[in-house]
Design goal:
The chain has about 325 residues and is an alpha/beta fold. It contains eleven helices and nine strands. Strands 1-2-3-4-5-6-7-9 form an eight-stranded parallel β-barrel, surrounded by eight helices. β1, α1 and β2 form a beta-alpha-beta unit. α1 packs parallel to α11 and α2 runs parallel beside α3. Its EC number is 1.-.-.-. This is LLM class flavin-dependent oxidoreductase.
């Protein structure tokens, strides 16, 4: 019997070709409502800046909007890029969210700026050292959310004693050390940087120190997931994802494109090869093949606690269907 796994979702609030920024936000809300209906554990919203194809720059505002349009599903950040923000302001914002919405708020924290260096310089209160201060600033946030007796003169009101749960995000081994040392849940970005995933997960499990927040390791892995009625349809839908990756790799940041029969019609051979290399680390297929791919993932990387699905699908109805099918696969696995 395999370990039961929760399932959740990550959304970058992409703008689809032919759509506007307000359309992207409305699509995010529709997806949140659908995921809640499907009993997903949580929806997280990413933080990206100076990306004309994404509307996920003001992450806390989008989280608030999604919370206001749902009733019980957890909503959080995947993540707040801490080098861009003073910990005091982050604590104030998320303490306020928990004050309004109760225990539905997650705070995922990343140590990268989530943008290019020129934009990072425009964002940050000081220059370029935020990445190196990440462990210290995580500790500051834990203090701000903790009891009044632990506070200094500066308090993050109304965050005091709110205990908003923190999650450490990572795409390399560095953040695994931070999460393990602080006794916090660890979230690996397998959807775009799986190269160090096996090593990072092993480090986290081996070095984890129980804390007041978590007694044993808790691992979430974000993966690209596309589930369709047939394997062939899933491969066709995945050409949208391939175009997204190619757009990132060549720096064009195009809006999300419709699927296409032949990627060679719109991408160079090099771009096709790079995109397909990324797709090899994705979960794409019909329900039966997705189930087999999950078995292979667990065999390679070990058991985890939660899969956070990222689904780049142009047609929102088919995106919703994919999340429904993924839920059905996960529920069936969990009942075995």
């Amino acid at each position: 019997m395999t370990k039961q796994m929760k399932y959740s979702a990550l959304n970058l609030v992409p703008i689809r070709e032919g759509s506007s920024d307000i359309d992207a936000i409305e699509q995010m809300v529709d997806l949140a409502k659908h995921l809640e209906q499907q009993e997903y554990e949580r929806l997280w919203i990413a933080e990206h800046h100076n990306a004309p194809n994404l509307v996920s720059s003001a992450t806390a505002i989008l989280i608030q909007h999604a919370l206001s349009q749902t009733t019980h599903m957890r909503i959080g950040s995947g993540g707040i890029m801490l080098p861009n923000h003073a910990p005091l302001i982050v604590a104030e914002q998320f303490g306020t969210l928990k004050t309004i919405y109760g225990d539905r708020v997650d705070l995922g924290l990343g140590r990268a700026p989530g943008t290019d260096m020129a934009t990072a310089s425009a964002l940050r209160r000081d220059q370029h050292d935020g990445v190196y201060k990440f462990p210290e600033e995580v500790q500051q946030l834990l203090k701000y959310f903790g009891p009044d007796s632990n506070q200094g003169y500066v308090k993050a009101i109304p965050a005091v004693n709110k205990n908003v749960p923190l999650y450490i995000l990572g795409s390399s081994t560095d953040s695994a050390h931070v999460a393990a040392r602080e006794g916090l849940p660890y979230v690996f970005a397998g959807h775009f940087a799986p190269q160090q995933m096996k090593e990072a997960l092993a480090i986290y499990k081996e070095l984890f120190q129980p804390s007041a927040y978590l007694k044993e390791p808790y691992i979430i892995v974000a993966l690209n997931v596309i589930v369709a009625d047939t394997f062939e349809e899933s491969q066709y839908l995945a050409t949208t994802q391939a175009q997204v990756f190619a757009s990132i790799l060549n720096g064009r940041m195009r809006k999300m494109q419709p699927p296409i029969d032949d990627l060679g019609d719109v991408l160079s051979p090099r771009e096709v090869a790079l995109a397909k290399a990324r797709l090899q680390d994705s979960i794409i297929g019909d329900k039966a093949s997705v189930n087999q791919q999950l078995d292979a993932f667990i065999e390679q990387y070990g058991e985890i606690d939660e899969i956070m699905a990222v689904s780049y699908i142009y047609d929102t109805k088919l995106q919703h269907r994919s999340y429904q099918y993924f839920k059905e696969v996960m529920d069936e696995r969990n009942q075995q």
